[in-house]
Amino acid sequence: MERNPWKLATIGMALVGTTALGTGLTTAYVMRTDEPVEAQQTVAPSRPLGATGAGVVPRPLSRAVTPRVTPVSTAATIPADCDTGGERALRIAKPGLIGALLGAGLGAAGGAVADGGKAAGKGALIGGLAGAALGGGYGAYKTQNECGTILGDGFAAAR
Question: What CA–CA distance (Å, rounded) separates 112 from 123?
Fold first, then answer.
């Protein structure tokens, strides 16, 4: 039986794609917001014909749901580790480091499977760079959402 490395690569890509799809759908389901229902129209049931033979025309009923508004002060929602630039940089660097380590490990494993030992180093380098970029981007995104800014208050006021 002939060994085909592309068969294993295809199976691996299918597994990764299935995992990514399942994770994305699960995350989207769990993180959904409870938005108010738009005004719904229902039709009242028609009544039987009267003695005159004229039917009652059904009229639409509408019910609007109004959202409840709760005021929140922004000072209470900003975490304590957003005060200095160093703390914000650490919030960005942590996911970048984790992404680099995971990317390097997966890249090395993928390179070794695809082309043996000599490709493991190349796969680790590419995976590490991609993981660092994606992890850093995720860290910057989360820092922007939680702290209100990535660069600090001085840069936000200058805009």
Answer: 8
Angle CA(123)–CA(20)–CA(105) in degrees, nearest 5? 25
pTM, 2 dp? 0.47
- 72-95 pLDDT, tens per residue? 555 556 777 777 778 888 888 888
Please name the residue ranges forming H helices in 4-152: 5-30, 74-77, 85-115, 118-147
Angle at 97 between CA 104 and CA 11, to 5 degrees: 35
Distance CA 89, CA 109 (A): 30
Nearest Cα neighbor of 47 from 57, 39, 38 is 57
Element (H, E) at 54: none
Q: Please state, for a pLDDT cut of 70, what percent of the chain lies above it.
A: 69
Cβ–Cβ under 8 Å, residues 92 and 150: yes
The whole-angstrom separation of Cα 154 and Cα 159 is: 9
Q: How far apart are CA 87 and CA 85, in angstroms?
A: 5
